[in-house]
Structures are given as structure tokens and as C-alpha cells.
UniProtKB/TrEMBL annotation:
Coiled-coil residue windows: none
Keywords: Cytoplasm, DNA damage, DNA recombination, DNA repair, DNA-binding, Endonuclease, Hydrolase, Magnesium, Metal-binding, Nuclease
Subcellular location: Cytoplasm
Major place of residence: cytoplasm
Source organism per UniProt: Streptomyces axinellae
Protein name as it appears in the record: Crossover junction endodeoxyribonuclease RuvC
Catalytic activity of the protein: Endonucleolytic cleavage at a junction such as a reciprocal single-stranded crossover between two homologous DNA duplexes (Holliday junction)
Lineage of origin: Bacteria, Bacillati, Actinomycetota, Actinomycetes, Kitasatosporales
Amino acid sequence: MRVLGVDPGLTRCGIGVVDGVAGRRLSMGAVGVIRTPAEAETAERLVLVERGMEEWLDTHRPEAVAVERVFSQHNVRTVMGTAQASAVAMLCAARRGLPVALHTPSEVKAAITGSGRADKAQVATMVTRLLRLDAPPKPADAADALALAICHLWRGPSQNRLQQAVAAQRLKGTTR
């Protein structure tokens, strides 16, 4: 399976492609960052993120997209930009009928390092080891995007089964 991981941001949107399945060797397809100029208007920056996402989707043809779930930060302006970039990534994937999964930062850290409290350096080190890279991807947003893709490859199938079971239970409850 090929997963596109997205670490959303308005200035730097980390993006990475990982191929593999749970329990097997993983390989990096590509990694990078979609950048927008800080001095540009928000609407223009979102168009640039959208164009970058579309280019990555066209080039790498993922089967799923994993996006970091936006969590509340102290800086409302930063969280708004992150949420807007996240929405653009989800919209681009949804337009193509691709499944979109949201993963929390602590969930990704726990999947990659074994600890939900790992720092960025620990995540980058494990991404480097898991994908057998010569050096950690830079900037950290790029490494985080790869970590999201890996997390989804490892946790996505079990989450899908859980969601299907919950949906089946709800359906049973409404047909009685």
C-alpha cells in the first residue's frame, strides 16, 4: 500500500510517501515540503498548498492519505493556519475518492518510537531507521510526514476494522 503522509502547515507543509504493509519492510517513495511565503495573503497561500498537494497526488498516486489531526495550541493564529492547510489536504484527497485518516501527534509518536511523548529528534531517528535512510529527512516537517504515513500503514488496518465493527453495531441497533 502507498500512503501519503501530510504534516499540515501554512508556511511549511511536510509531505511524504511510504510504501509497505504492516509487518513487512517499508520504503520511502518521496519526501518534501510544500512552502508558502509568509508575506502572502492566507487565501493565496492556501491555493499554493492545494497546487502542491495536487502535484504530489498526481505524481505519487497514493492509495490513502494520512493527515496529522490538528490539536489546540496556545497560538490561535498558528492553529488556524495548520487547520486550514489540513482541510486543503483532506479536500484534495476526498476529490479523488482517497480514504483520509487523521492521526494525533501522540498516536504517531507512540507508533514510531513506542512513546507518545517522544521529541522530534527521536521521531526523526526512528523514521531514518525504519526506512533505512542515510540521514534524517529535513526539515522536521518532512520527517513528521513520513512518520504519519508509517503510523497509518501500521495502525490503519486495525482502525478500519474497529470503525466497521462500530458501524455494524449501530446498524444492528437501528434494525431491531
